[in-house]
Design goal:
- This protein has 107 residues and is mainly beta.
- The chain has one helix and five strands; from the N terminus they run E-H-E-E-E-E.
- Strands 1-5-4-3-2 form a five-stranded mixed β-sheet.
């Protein structure tokens, strides 16, 4: 779906956000088989990750560009091309909820 394509749903738009998690949650994110993000339309979305809750905050940043790989049909040795998928200036930073004790953060 392109940036101007509404997928057949009139009046809808896609909005992209760069999502980050604090350093001590990176390993947890890599090893988790599932996670859930709720409240994206609120100032502080929540992420449930491996039995832990993280709280998010939005931050405006310089524009981030997201690319996707496109196949080039010009032969078997063809290299994939990169196409601009979308751009955003919004970052969603997740940190562990303040209710977690310092010793409870996973390493």
């Amino acid at each position: 779906m392109g940036p101007d394509d509404d997928g057949g749903q009139a009046g809808t738009t896609d909005e992209y956000v760069v999502v980050t998690v604090e350093d001590c949650a990176q390993e947890l994110l890599r090893n988790s088989t599932d996670y859930e993000i709720t409240g994206l339309d609120t100032p502080n979305p929540k992420m449930r990750l491996g039995g832990h809750e993280l709280i998010g905050t939005y931050e405006e940043e310089t524009t981030a560009m997201m690319f996707s790989e496109t196949a080039d049909a010009s032969g078997e040795d063809a290299r994939p091309n990169m196409a601009l998928h979308s751009m955003t200036n919004l970052r969603l930073n997740f940190r562990f909820a303040s209710t977690a004790g310092v010793g409870e953060r996973p390493v």
